[in-house]
Design a protein that fits this description.
115 residues, 2 helices
């Protein structure tokens, strides 16, 4: 379960930021999670709770924004949203494409802190 190690890294990063602000209380962590990131949202949420136990982040929330898959279609020359992870192709013309431009994200984008 690699989600636990990811959650522990998120908690560690948030603790460092909190410490740099005079041990401000972290209320929530905002995360962008791409559908192709290889991370299971529910497992990460559960792991986050475990990783926060007995830390200054205990009781904080992990708020996840799921990022859809977008590819660049070489035939249509546009970015398009893909509806299936199994068939990554342009929904307009059907051309398969390996160029994923969005959907692999795993990034902390914000912390809500009470100072």
């Amino acid at each position: 379960m690699h989600e636990l190690s990811i959650a522990m890294s998120i908690v560690e990063m948030a603790e460092e930021e909190s410490a740099s602000r005079g041990n401000a209380q972290v209320l929530s962590v905002h995360l962008r999670l791409g559908l192709l990131s290889g991370v299971v949202k529910e497992a990460l949420l559960s792991s986050y709770e475990m990783a926060c136990a007995s830390t200054p982040l205990e009781g904080s929330q992990l708020l996840i924004e799921e990022v859809p898959i977008e590819v660049f279609c070489p035939k249509c020359q546009v970015r398009v949203r893909v509806s299936s992870m199994q068939w990554i192709a342009c929904p307009e013309c059907g051309t398969p494409t390996p160029e994923v431009v969005q959907g692999k994200e795993l990034e902390v984008v914000a912390l809500e802190i009470k100072e």
